[in-house]
Amino acid sequence: MRVTHLINLSETAGRNPFSGAERHLFLLMQEQKRHGCAVEFAPLVFCSGPILEQKFRELQERGITVTPIHAGSPDFRRLRIPLLILRMLLFFRARRHDIIHTHLDIADFAARIAAYGAGCRYIINTFHNDEPHYRRLLWRWQLRFTGGLTRCSIVISDHIRQYLIDAVGLPEANIHTIPYGIAVPETTLSRTSTRQLLNIPNGVFVVGFVGRLEQQKQPLFFLRAVAGMPDIHAVIIGEGSMLSQLIRETRNLPQGKIIIAGYRADAADLMPAFDLFCLPSRWEGLGYVLLEAMARNVPVLGSTSGAIPEILDNGKYGFLFATGNTEDLRAQIQKIKNNPEIAVPKTQAAQRRVREHFSIDTMTEQTIATYQHMYQHPSSITPHAE
């Protein structure tokens, strides 16, 4: 089986271009290759750079064919869509593809149109987030139109599935949930060693945040909430457009109160430094960092937005606070600090949940099974039974 994956990629100097969706895709392609698929990666590249080039080399070393489609500057991308569709139409016509699998907005929209126009009939896409702009009239039209060209849409959580049905109007039978897969590490770094690596003072209660420093994730809300708690320290790991603002906010705080660590390639492995991991997002399709924390036996606290309550089973595997509610967030942090024993059973159960429900093998096998269903039932767009 030949599978071609397409996704948007763009690198800005000094910033990591990969978030949860890209990391998931790299893992999925490697696992599909291991399961016997011939995998091609055709990223739609708006701005290239050394991080992207290094990743392309790594994928090629793992036996994945990498064929970048260069799209030029990311500025005015929507004005370039007709040209991108034409370029990808020629790309698809020049080779044989069994499965076209698209990811993320621009590559997803343009590639599905181009692939269909080139005669590709086995087109599938993945929705990685519950983007608020999907509710807009133009986006609803775009998604419904391209949905008619697509055999099946994969979503990474039931929350996204219901969102697409209710907010966008996509047919329920066409959407299949396959959560991300993640490996639970056999060993983790100790709390002492991770705190040394992050220069965290000894004997303090630390709440950690890892993720993109963008409005969706609410890092500024998190920083200000913790800054107002005298006995709580915080570590923020990540990069994004809000980095400089976050640094300014810490200037008048006691040294070591809030540590802005920036981008760290080893961010997941540093999570054992936290007494509590917090994801305060305004919307969230799944929350890959939640799985990373759960896999490392770190207690988690998330907002009630998006798929976070689904991943935590409404508090069975972690703690929840009302989205954007500073007092509720502080109350939950203080409760866990004062009674750390209440987090132990939830945290242990959370690690088991990751092993059982978010395994890499399950993710890969379900995705390949969805491809196979399209071949076996060419007149049907409904994936294999839930």
Task: Outline the biggest β-sheet.
Answer: 7 strands, parallel
Q: Structural class, please? A: alpha/beta
Strand content bin: 15-25%
- Report the count of strand segments: 16
Going across the biggest sheet, name each strand in turn. 5-3-1-7-8-9-10
Order of helices and strands: EEHEEHEEHEHEHEHEHEHEHEEHEHEHHH
Explain briefly what this protein structure is.
This protein has 386 residues and is of the alpha/beta class. It contains 14 helices and 16 strands.
What does this structure look like?
With 386 residues, the protein is an alpha/beta fold. It is 41% helix and 17% strand. The strands form three sheets. A seven-stranded parallel beta sheet has the order 5-3-1-7-8-9-10, sandwiched between helices. Strands 13-12-11-14-15-16 form a six-stranded parallel beta sheet, sandwiched between helices. It has a three-stranded parallel beta sheet with strand order 2-4-6. Helix 8 links the parallel strand 11 and strand 12. Helix 1 crosses helix 14, helix 3 packs across helix 4 and helix 8 packs across helix 12. It is globular, with a radius of gyration of 21 Å.
